[in-house]
Specification:
Order of helices and strands: HHEHEHEHHEHHEH
Number of strands: 5
Radius of gyration: 18 Å
């Protein structure tokens, strides 16, 4: 996750160099995982920008455009939602991890999995707040939800009903979600 990359910046720099080279002048989107505060995003974004500058100085092909996004998986980032939306080029809500942290319940542990409820009022209010923040910033189209929640037809319908327009799911979920929508 991002903490390892920021603790060992050379690791992130090598990964970014590989992404820049692979982009070969095309559009590049980099999604940063497990961001817990805006400062982590800013630090990682700075490293990415330095690697792009480095490649340009060396005459290497650089991406036509680079978008850097943030995963919202750690609840602490929700308290800086307006700031991260303003800084990131796109946002992806990682519903699996975020809901596990919110409910303090592992969805795969039978002893506590019943406490993990993607359609609970808490989750639906959270999604509504995220949509409102994105609407205030004028970037609703730049927020997506990924994870099991997006790939279950009823939950996907709730997300769409709350205003989200982009859902990311496993290929096997596309047909059932598409049928309901």
């Amino acid at each position: 996750a991002i903490r390892i990359s920021l603790d060992r910046p050379a690791l992130l720099r090598y990964q970014v160099r590989a992404l820049i080279a692979a982009a070969e002048g095309r559009h590049l989107r980099i999604l940063l995982p497990m961001i817990s505060e805006v400062a982590e995003f800013e630090q990682a974004r700075g490293l990415i920008d330095r690697e792009i500058d480095r490649a340009a100085r060396k005459g290497e092909p650089i991406p036509q455009h680079v978008d850097v996004g943030s995963m919202i998986e750690v609840p602490s980032l929700l308290f800086e939602i307006d700031q991260i939306i303003a800084l990131a080029d796109f946002i992806s809500v990682g519903s699996n991890d975020l809901l596990q942290f919110i409910f303090a319940a592992d969805r795969s542990n039978p002893a506590v999995s019943r406490r993990y409820d993607a359609l609970s009022p808490a989750v639906l209010n959270l999604v509504r707040q995220l949509v409102s923040a994105a609407e205030r910033a004028g970037c609703l189209s730049e927020i997506s939800v990924c994870g099991e929640m997006a790939g279950k037809p009823l939950e996907a319908m709730a997300l769409i009903g709350l205003g989200l327009t982009t859902l990311s799911m496993q290929a096997t979920s596309i047909g059932p979600v598409k049928m309901l929508v």
